[in-house]
Amino acid sequence: MKLHEYQSKTIFAKYGIPIPKGRIAATAVEAKHIAEELGGRVVIKSQVLVGGRGKAGGIKVAKSAAEAEGLAQQILAMEIKGLPVRKVLVDEAAAIEHEIYFAITNDRSAKKPVMIASAEGGIDIEEVAANTPEKIIKVHIDPLLGLRDYQARDIAASIDLPREHWREFSKIAAGLWQAYLETDATLAEINPLVITKDNRLVALDGKMMIDDNAMFRHADLNEMRDIDEEAPAETEARKYGLSYIKLDGNIGCMVNGAGLAMTSMDIVKLFGGEPANFLDIGGGAGSDKVAAAMKIILSDPNVKAVLFNIFGGITRCDEVARGILVAMDEVKPKVPMVVRLVGTNAEEGRQILKDAKMITAETLADAAKKAVEAAR
Amino acid sequence: MSILINKNTRLVVQGITGNEGLFHSTQMLAYGTNLVAGVTPGKGGEWVLDGKVPVFDSVKLAKEATDANATVIFVPARFAPDAMFEAADAGIPLIVCITEGVAVQDMMRVRNYLDQKNVRLVGPNCPGMLTPGESKVGIIPGNIAIPGNIGVVSRSGTLTYEVLYALKLVGMGASTCVGIGGDPVNGTNFIDVLEMFEHDPHTEKVVLIGEIGGTDEDKAAEFIASKMTKPVVSFIAGQTAPPGKRMGHAGAIIEGGAGTAEGKVKALEAAGVKVAKHPEEIPSLLK
After folding, report:
1. pLDDT score at B255
2. CB 3.0-4.6 Å disulfide test: which of A41, A75, A156, B246 passes with A93?
3. Domains along chain B?
4. Of the candidates A25, A105, A92, the residue with the CA atom closest to the CA atom of residue A61
């Protein structure tokens, strides 16, 4: 789950990381009031869950409260990479001396968290990483020990941070580590962490991503989820523990297992079709989950045929077959359905679907071909 | 011959009295797996599966009573890390975790702890392993594979079944099939299994099933090029998947441009691996 900048920075502040004074506004008038409180000179920052907001014109500096109102109005009317701007963050404007990149994320190949820092922070950090990787400092952290103080000092030294800032930087590093740890983040990023003209360290921008698998211990964070920024079908799918991504094709796919779901899409395409979605019903799906999945697929008006490819392991084909019947009874679908059941309880599943009007297939290739034909 | 599991495997099932645990224990026992004990805290002393398998309160007690040498975990995601720590502390050398949805920070702690104890973990979020005709540890349906000389290793679950089934349909069998799981942080990677297959006298050819994301397939390609003498055939899932919603800057910095299906296919082909266009094409590439 991605968090907005303002949400991320609120979490940072809780862990002792200095952030600019500021608040969130949903209207231009609110933005004006906040700017007045902050003394006029402010930054208006669109809050959408995509990168490149600055380059898209979604971040502007205002010299007065009146200008803040005008700019907020403009930005609130924008769409950035297809996402409408619903909120802006109004922050006091900082006088920037220097920009640092500082983040922590999971290094899957090292099986450890890694702190990443660079003296060349800011919006071009990816170019820095690609062109001058030696300017990116990486320090792995033992997940059983946590961040050690010396590691934070080493990072400060490696990015040539002036010594007078080391103590403050170590506090920020410790705060970032704790924030990452206690929220089950997969990413906690400060970019930029600035040294201001009056010689303070401030986290001007923040980005956090939280591990969806850890939500069971973070009910508070789950409330921060911005469902306005998701496709409604994806929100609905998550409610049932399904993973669904809408695509542009016309063949709906319901598959168990992410690898097989991707493969089914690959084969549909190989035989000249276009998948309408990625949908993994997961392991051990019961009939209610299957029924929910089918409704979500059929809610897409582009869908001209549906391919069910179930290879039972932990998922039982008879359960899936029951779910298909329940959903067909409720939704009364008008599009052709191709079904392939193999593996655990496949024979029972086929028996259950015997009287339903479905096209059956033996192999994966056969199923994909039949679905492509049926969609024509 | 086989790798990791065989008829001498003495298996414990953690979470044996749960729905999934009981269902798949029944299947494993029917397949002939030497299932010696179950563990469910609070249910020690009971017997399950028609009185054939004793249940213990802890892995330690189960191991003391049965001399078990492997465990398979079916407990829910929030309890799975504890189950893995428990098995490692009880001295079980092989842990197979089927559970899906374990938090990644939990897995980093588990993996780093298990490495210190020299314990082999397979999974989590994996289908487990199957040595046809000898032992089934996990959820791979037993009837979709026959004994043979092809080693199968896969990051996927159900996609692995497709491949085993496609092999069986043309009379080809597997030495051992290992599902390593698709989670970002897991216990066993491709190279670990490739190395075991390379040294297993009964494995003649290897099938590697990968997918988009991460760099494991690329590392496997390097290993195949430099260390393997046995032929490898592969399939990479996700060749048509749209680029995912990206993970901020840090992900790009860590993994660079790696992770696409196209890149993985290229790396494998450069290592002399035949890459199938779809899973049912694999048997013909093995001939």
Report:
1. 52
2. A41
3. 11-122 (3.40.50.720), 128-286 (3.40.50.261)
4. A92
